[in-house]
Request: fold
Amino acid sequence: MSQEITIAGIGIAPEVLAVIVSRSVEEVEGVASVGVKDLATNLVSMFSAKSTQVGEDVEAEVVDDKLRLTVHLTVFFGYPFKKLAEVVREAVVSAIDAQVGVEVESVNICIDSLVFPKE
Reply:
C-alpha cells in the first residue's frame, strides 16, 4: 500500500480515495471507465460488484487541508466534455463529502480516451 494521505487528522490510503471516487464517477452517464481500460476490463467491471484496482487513475494531494483530486477518464463519444466534467466534479465532491467528510479544493478532469459506439 502506498503512502497515506493525512487530512483533518485522518490517515487515508490513496487507494481508498480512488475507490470512493471511481465508484461515484462510474455512475455518471457518459463515463465508460475511470482510467483507460480495455473492453474486456470494462465489461467485467460493469457486471461485477468487486471494485477494480485503480492505480494512477485517481490522484490525490492535500493543499491547505483540502483535497485536490485529478481523475483520469475514458468517456463515450457524444457527451460534451465540459458538461460531463461538471457532472463528474459534482459526483466526486458529493461522494468525498459523504464518505470522508473533508473539503475538496478542486477536481481536475483528464479525458484520456474516447469510446465510439459500434455502427
About this structure: The CA atoms of residues 67 and 104 lie 5 Å apart. The domain at 5-115 is CATH 3.30.70.1350 (Alpha-Beta Plaits). The longest helix spans residues 81-99.
